[in-house]
Design a protein that fits this description.
Elements (H helix, E strand, L loop, with lengths): L5 E4 L4 E2 L5 E2 L3 E2 L9 E10 L2 E10 L10 E7 L4 E6 L7 E8 L5 E6 L7 E5 L7 E10 L13 E4 L9 E10 L2 E10 L11 E8 L7 E6 L4 E6 L4 E8 L8 E5 L9 E4 L3 E4 L2 E4 L1 E2 L2 E5 L8 E7 L9 E6 L5 E4 L9 E10 L2 E11 L13 E4 L4 E4 L13 E10 L10 E4 L5 E7 L6 E4 L7 E10 L10 E4 L4
């Protein structure tokens, strides 16, 4: 191993008396007195030889400041003024403040303002009631050599401020005797910030026409909905968030005067009154695609739907879109194959929403849950008429019923009836297949049968997801001619 290095100052012509300390790197310190210029030769020697290195420098150009200490701060909702003291008296320093943002990003801010006893920097454009972590290190302002050691990190929270942005609010209106029940829902929009330790909500409603005294009710932060009862007049509803400083701007809904129209009817002063038809839409692996016709009179559009349409409450959800948007892919972790979801598209202007279109669809259609039950069989010697009048094609089905297949075959042999298509079962037996493409048609006559013959039959409903495998048949005997 090498011998400890020795240091020699050529200006003073003296060997430097210092004790070498080596950990990750070697160093030693000594008192230079009033000397400014140093010409240092370092010699390292071992039994195999020695090596020297020389450096000439002005000590005022090699300043490595000690770490700032005793940090403190003054805060507002959007600014932090950070102060610190320093031990390097009489040396003009250039300092750098590292700020760790809430999202994990790091920002660096430079400053050179130096008070006699302390230094400071003001950090602005911060978020209210948010934690930031800061630390400081400095270097010589003149003849900068390297940054000094970091100070201890200090975590600082800005003060509370008025909530920023508005709540995203929506409603569901249910007609009742002598009025309406209005379910109000709210959520924090992406642009909304609570800006405080605790948040609560205040709901206020009043008649639009007669200026009657408003009614209001407050809720803690765990609530995101309520139900109020109103009569058939027009109402203005405001919902605000509140923290320890102030209220947010109100989000307003105008509930129009009741017209007697149900949710199936579109009423709008711009468009007149017409019956709304429900349009079928298709799902994908990523969601259910919804499109609508834009109208220039609206400043936004809202789509609402139930996450659990067969339950009450159904977990009503909604999304808002700008005036130039005409389609959206609606997705939810609650969406599952085989469940029909109903979507309502509203246009909104001046806080008044009008129902424009209705859509219905599945994330993915599945085969029908059960087969139609044949309730009536009418036989002749060469034909059979089947009826299944009570079969439902509504939202209880796991797909849109597109029609029916009637399968027929003689017991003793494969089928080859005129006008049918061949359908081969897994056991290689052949059936005759007839397709009825109208889901409302629930009666069918199979012709060209043989008299005095035993047949097996089955009626299957099919959806966009297909049909279930054939398991059970019904049997008939055609009479003698």
């Amino acid at each position: 191993s090498p011998f400890p290095p020795s240091f020699f100052d050529r200006f003073s012509q003296k060997t430097i008396p210092c004790t070498v300390s080596c950990s990750e790197q070697c160093s030693c310190s000594w008192d230079i007195g009033q000397q400014r210029i140093c010409n240092i030769t370092v010699t390292v020697e071992n039994p195999l030889g020695k090596k020297t290195a020389t450096d000439v420098f002005d000590v005022t150009h090699r300043i490595y400041p000690a770490a700032p200490f005793q940090l403190w701060e003054e805060c507002t909702g959007t600014e932090i003024t950070l102060y610190w003291k320093h031990r390097n008296k009489g040396i003009e320093l250039f300092c750098q403040t590292e700020v760790l943002q809430p999202d994990g990003k790091v920002e660096l801010h430079n400053s050179s303002d130096m008070h006699l006893h302390y230094a400071s920097i003001t950090l602005d454009e911060l978020q209210p009631y948010t934690e930031y972590t800061a630390r400081v290190h400095c270097g010589a302002a003149k003849h900068f050599w390297r940054w000094g050691e970091w100070s201890e990190a200090r975590t600082i929270r800005t003060k509370e401020a008025t909530p920023s942005g508005k709540l995203d609010v929506w409603r569901e209106i249910t007609p009742v005797l002598r009025g309406r029940d209005v379910t109000l829902l709210w959520k924090q929009a992406p642009s909304f910030r609570a800006n405080g330790r605790s948040i609560s909500y205040e709901v206020t409603w009043e008649k639009v026409e007669d200026g009657s005294k408003p009614e209001s009710i407050s809720f803690s932060s765990v609530y995101n909905s309520t139900r109020i009862s109103i009569d058939n007049h027009s109402y203005k509803i405001s919902i605000m968030a509140k923290n320890n400083v102030n209220y947010s701007l109100p989000s307003v809904l105008i509930i129009p005067r009741a017209t007697g129209n149900s949710r199936k009817t579109l009423f709008c002063p711009f468009l007149g009154t017409e019956e709304l038809k429900e349009e079928q839409v298709n799902g994908t692996d990523d969601g259910i695609f919804i499109s609508w016709e834009t109208r220039h009179i609206y400043d936004s559009y809202i789509i609402d739907w139930c996450n659990f349409p067969m339950l009450q409450p159904c977990d009503l959800q909604w999304k808002r879109f700008g005036p130039n948007t005409s389609s959206a892919l609606i997705n939810s972790a609650a969406f599952v194959p085989g469940v029909r979801y109903n979507f309502h598209i509203y246009g909104s202007v001046a806080n008044r929403a009008s129902l424009l279109e209705k859509k219905t669809g599945y994330l993915r259609e599945l085969p029908p849950l059960r087969d139609p039950t044949v309730q009536k069989v009418e036989l002749t010697f060469n034909a059979v008429t089947l009826s299944w009048d009570s079969y439902l094609t509504n939202e209880t089905q796991s797909g849109f019923v597109r029609g029916y297949h009637v399968y027929v075959s003689p017991i003793e042999e494969d089928c080859s009836l005129k006008g049918s298509k061949k359908h081969v079962l897994p056991d290689d037996s052949v059936l005759c297949k007839y397709t009825i493409e109208n889901p409302e048609e629930k009666r069918y006559t199979v012709k060209h049968l043989l008299s005095n013959t035993k047949y097996k039959l089955v009626v299957k409903a099919y959806t966009g997801g297909g049909e279930t495998p054939i398991v059970n048949f019904m049997y008939i005997d055609t009479p003698f001619n």
